[in-house]
Design brief:
Two copies of one chain form a homodimer. Helix content of chain A is about 30%, strand content about 20%. Chain A is α/β, with parallel strands linked by helices and about 290 residues long. Chain A has a single domain, classed as Rossmann fold, CATH 3.40.50.1820. In chain A, strands 1-2-3-5-4-6-7-8-9 form a nine-stranded mixed β-sheet, sandwiched between helices. Chains A, B: Serine hydrolase involved in the detoxification of formaldehyde.
Chain lengths: ~290, ~290
Amino acid sequence: MTKENLELLSTNKVRYGGELRKYKFKSAALGGLDSNFNLYLPPQVASGKAPVLVYLAGLTCTEDNGAQKGSFFGPAAAKGIALLFPDTSPRGAGIEGEDADWDFGTGAGFYLNATNPKFSNHYNMLTHVTLELPQILEAADLPLDLSRQSIFGHSMGGHGALTLYLASKTNQYRSASAFSPICNPVNCPWGQKAFNGYLQGGVTEATDQYDATELIKKHKEPVRILIDYGTGDNFYKQGQLLPENFVKAARDTGHDEGQVQVRSQDGYDHSYYFISTFATDHINFHAQYI
Amino acid sequence: MTKENLELLSTNKVRYGGELRKYKFKSAALGGLDSNFNLYLPPQVASGKAPVLVYLAGLTCTEDNGAQKGSFFGPAAAKGIALLFPDTSPRGAGIEGEDADWDFGTGAGFYLNATNPKFSNHYNMLTHVTLELPQILEAADLPLDLSRQSIFGHSMGGHGALTLYLASKTNQYRSASAFSPICNPVNCPWGQKAFNGYLQGGVTEATDQYDATELIKKHKEPVRILIDYGTGDNFYKQGQLLPENFVKAARDTGHDEGQVQVRSQDGYDHSYYFISTFATDHINFHAQYI
């Protein structure tokens, strides 16, 4: 991956200081398609490298939703943390049916590597987020310390944050947090649809790799996880999120409140109005570790 | 306008307390089309009526952009101000050509009342904002004091805020402010296109009613106006905003810095990243008067 491949599309001065940049590059992980990401650089990069907190967005979203609606810049500027906002899927792969549903295909990559041959050339968001983007950022000589990364996300992106954190063999991320995450996707309709579509082995193949509740059962080492969800969230009520399953699995495996904190927030829903309300808590949580 | 016509589509708990509601109703001003608006109610409505600050969004926007990206709720909660977010145009009028351009027709109502017969049945955002929405809110028995209103907006919505404020015969709004407003639309391409399309008399008809720079020349009474624009704003550089013309007209008419403050903000652009940076300043400005 060379620096020349990276194109700066725009740069914005933002509230509380710092700068938001939008980049485009040809993504090898996504089968050579153009892919965008946003990068927030806090004011502190004037005098040194910033650690990186990765934000994974939810179904139907792009690299813009978290940047525009998350209210993350204030606390990130206060703590000197850079924010990386990847897209949520490849764009324009041209695979039959990929634009038919809002919860599968475009905008719904689920942060996995597809093994179904129909999707495996393009739908590799796991590699895109964990390997390709860090390589791109390193090659670009940006003022980032990529040895200090943490990860958070919303809904499908909360699933992504928890699973990439728990499944990493290299402890790539120091901590993980999530707003309204899909905690047990092998047991909910969104996850089952995604896994049966993207993976040759379907839900069975997903269980070991892409399900936060299953992953924490096998994760004996200490973890640093914070989760918030709202009791007014319709997707929670419909059984798409299943945070209780994750809490039970965590506790059964010996992860106490100090390691896995799951907070039920009264009356809040699934929107960015909810996320922005608890944004500072999440940034400050990660600031302890990166 | 009856209360029965008003449908609550959703309600969100938001950051800093308070509640955002989205409503739908059949708008007489817009020719009987369904129209949405958002309403932010600050926590203080638990113990009394809140004054209303109207936010008018810019080209291509809806009632959601300001609510989602403006960072207005924090300062509004601090000051006990309700925020009303109207849409920017009628939707689905079915007029030939209304969806062809991003800067005319749908999403581009320019806060005027059309006189061109092709548009005059539907494109009446002036009446919608100044008369119809207050009537709807009054009829709904919401905890609002509509005798205390101010108005602000962005770009096309900044034009709307300034012109509705300056043209009101009843001093409906106590103060006006704008981010990157179109200050002299009869002299810029966006304004000329809109006026020549919506108004039978074109730009000539607009000059007396819908141009902030022309209006302030005839406005001898004291005014309360705050404007911010960014020097990195491409639309400013292209001559769509023309704040200098407004400042000159204001000063020539005797409105000093205490009445008309226009601030050039170094390096900022036309986006909501800019708006959110100065959101608190604008809310606090209006809080002095409502």
